From TrEMBL:
GO terms for cellular component: cytosol; nucleus; protein phosphatase type 2A complex. The gene is LOC101897881. PANTHER family: PROTEIN PHOSPHATASE 2 (FORMERLY 2A), REGULATORY SUBUNIT A, BETA ISOFORM-RELATED, SERINE/THREONINE-PROTEIN PHOSPHATASE PP2A 65 KDA REGULATORY SUBUNIT. Signal peptide: none annotated. It comes from the Eukaryota. It comes from Musca domestica. InterPro entries: ARM-like (IPR011989), ARM-type_fold (IPR016024), HEAT (IPR000357), HEAT_type_2 (IPR021133), PP2A/SF3B1-like_HEAT (IPR054573), PP2A_Regulatory_Subunit_A (IPR051023). This is Protein phosphatase PP2A regulatory subunit A. Pfam families: HEAT, PPP2R1A-like_HEAT.
């Protein structure tokens, strides 16, 4: 019996330690203990968790914000640990307390957990336990509780009786009219979510007046959140109701005195367009879009400029081209020469997308002149955004008409003083090469690509080597053999060791796409030559390169050329060279054993057995026989 008691005590000892840590002065210990709450609850059992642990946690709410945040997060997943949904109400008191603390992040997490717990209540328990909690939060003295209350309406409303629903709508109206801006802001942010669960008649009679009032609030931080609710409400109402209930407020927001509200309208414009439908878009949203395109604030113009392509794409197809040509393009033309570089850059990122909508003739007549202006813009981001979206124009009119104007822009970007700009144009080069064709590339752009291999910034040289691989994938191994491999091999004789290392990096990449013949005939001799380089960094990169290209070489070449070179490097005086050489030797030996294994493996083995045997072979060290072969 004593032995049995000792076992029980031993099992509860770690729990006691964790509970002690919850009271410890060290914040990190308390935080660790909170994160292990599920372990404590499992050990205590459901009944003791409800009767002891939860009350204890409710009493310890006054703690550091970091600890409270972890507690709020844990309690959201505690329903099964207190006995399931029928006991979920035990989690409400600590979460209600957490929802009233001063720190916003803790309150938000507590509300998130309360929503999870509330959803797990039955409809009856929801009215008995969750709705009174919501009402207490609504009538709380501090604004913190009232802001938290806003997040609970949408989860409670669908599952309660009609009288309670009426109370909830009245409570939400009360929060929308609260004297504290933070509470009105919280109500505005949850208005769209609440609108989705309210019946259509009450949406019109109760919530839309709240929406109109919030959209006219004296605080712009409240008004801009009402714009988000506008999208949700417009999606829920029939077209005729949208016109007289929502549009007046939307027009008012689009010309609001605060640029932040107008910015939010610009950000949500395409969502609004989809919500109101094509007819209202044509009559009301097109003028609003024009108004925003010539807004006095650059931030608003930049935001709406990024929506030009999507807005035009969602126009009624029957009138799309006419509306773009007569109502949108004149304003877009003005933005091309906007004084603010961010506006021009935002427009350049989307303007090419108009080409497929307008067709070949309109693109040549009206868009092409704008593209040419942007390709000569003083801001590199503008030129870069045009070049990165050339595929849209290429599909409609071909790229030949732009090629002569493209070249100066590409050259300027390739030589830009900002290395990130150079990096971006490198990443677009393979796509450009495919669009411009091999002949144009060889004549005008190949030299640029080779120049990047000698750039003083490592990230550029690294991207340039990957670019070479993609170009070979584009134009083929035969092109590589004639056009770029001879120029890369010359780098192996450069006096600067960084260039010699870049040569190795290129050969690494090219071996993957050039095939066995070219790798053996052209690439391998240069790698072997660099094994005698005076700089140790080059020599250990030779070892890494030999390991990487060995899968593309015949076994006879590995035996006669690769292994002797690696043995020589394995005896090098530099410790790093020896390390990478020995790694390469082991990897090549394992690969060769694996190849032999694949040949002799019985065909009757299933895939699972084959995989298991393969894994076992890879994990095993190379056999002494193979070591002797490698040294011979």
């Amino acid at each position: 019996m004593a032995s049995s008691d000792k076992t029980i005590d031993d099992s509860l000892y770690p729990i006691a330690v964790l509970i002690d840590e919850l009271k410890n002065e060290d914040v990190q210990l308390r935080l660790n203990s909170i994160k292990k709450l599920s372990t404590i609850a499992l050990a205590l059992g459901e009944e003791r968790t409800r009767s002891e642990l939860i009350p204890f946690l409710t009493e310890t709410i006054y703690d550091e914000d970091e600890v409270l945040l972890a507690l709020a997060d844990q309690l959201g997943n505690f329903t099964s640990l207190v006995g399931g949904p029928e006991y979920a109400m035990y989690l409400i008191p600590p979460l209600e307390s957490l929802a009233t603390v001063e720190e916003t992040v803790v309150r938000d997490k507590a509300v998130e957990s309360l929503r999870i717990v509330a959803a797990e209540h039955s409809a009856q328990d929801l009215e008995i336990h969750v709705v009174p909690t919501l009402q207490r939060l609504v009538s709380g003295d501090w604004f913190t509780s009232r802001t938290s209350a806003c997040g609970l309406f949408s989860v409670c409303y669908p599952r309660v009786s009609q009288p309670v629903k009426a109370e909830l709508r009245a409570n939400f109206r009360k929060l929308c009219q609260d004297e504290t801006p933070m509470v009105r802001r919280a109500a505005a942010s949850k208005l769209g979510e609440f609108a989705k669960v309210v019946e259509i008649e009450y949406l019109k009679s109760d919530l839309i007046p709240n929406f109109v009032q919030l959209a006219q609030d004296d605080q712009d931080s409240v008004r801009l959140l009402a714009v988000e609710a506008c999208v949700s409400i417009a999606q829920l109402l029939p077209q005729e109701d949208v016109e007289h209930l929502v549009l007046p407020t939307l027009r008012q927001c689009a010309s609001d005195s605060s640029w932040r509200v107008r910015y939010m309208v610009a950000e949500k414009f395409v969502d609004l367009q989809k919500a109101v439908g094509p007819e209202i878009t044509r009559v009301d949203l097109v003028p609003a879009f024009q108004y925003l395109l010539k807004d006095a604030e650059a931030e608003v113009r930049a935001a709406v400029a990024t929506k030009v392509k999507d807005f035009c794409a969602n126009l009624d197809k029957a009138n799309q081209v006419h509306i773009i040509m007569t109502s949108i393009l004149p304003y877009v033309r003005d933005l091309v020469s906007d004084p603010n570089p961010h506006v021009k850059s935002a427009l350049a990122s989307v303007i090419m997308g108009l080409s497929p909508m307008l067709g070949a003739y309109n693109t040549v007549e009206h868009l092409l002149p704008l593209f040419l202006i942007q390709l000569k813009d003083e801001c590199p981001e503008v030129r870069l955004n045009i070049i990165s979206n050339l595929d849209c124009v290429n599909d409609v009119i071909g790229i030949q008409q732009l090629s002569q104007s493209l070249l100066p822009a590409i050259v300027e970007l390739a030589e830009d003083s900002k290395w990130r700009v150079r990096l971006a144009i490198i990443e677009y080069m393979p796509a450009l090469a495919g669009q411009l064709g091999q002949e144009f590339f060889d004549q005008k752009l190949r030299g640029l690509c080779m120049g990047w291999l000698n750039d003083h910034v490592y990230a550029i040289r690294e991207a340039a080597t990957l670019n070479m691989k993609k170009l070979v994938e584009q134009f083929g191994a035969q092109w590589a053999e004639q056009a770029i491999i001879p120029m890369i091999l010359v780098m192996s004789r450069n006096k600067n060791y960084l260039h010699r290392m870049t040569c190795l990096f290129c050969l690494n990449m090219l071996a993957e796409v050039c095939g066995t013949d070219i790798t053996t005939k052209l690439l391998l001799p240069t790698v072997l030559l660099l094994a005698s380089d005076p700089v140790s960094n080059v020599r250990f990169n030779v070892a890494k390169t030999l390991q990487k290209i060995s899968p593309f070489l015949d076994s006879s070449v590995i035996d006669t050329q690769v292994k002797p070179t690696l043995e020589k490097l394995n005896a090098d005086t530099d410790v790093d060279v020896k390390h990478f050489a020995s790694e390469a030797i082991a990897a090549i030996a394992a690969e060769m054993e694996l190849d032999v294994f694949r040949v002799v493996i019985p065909p009757v083995l299933g895939k699972a057995q084959e995989d298991a045997m393969t894994a076992k072979l890879i994990a095993a060290p190379p056999s002494s026989t193979n070591d002797n072969n490698l040294k011979s």
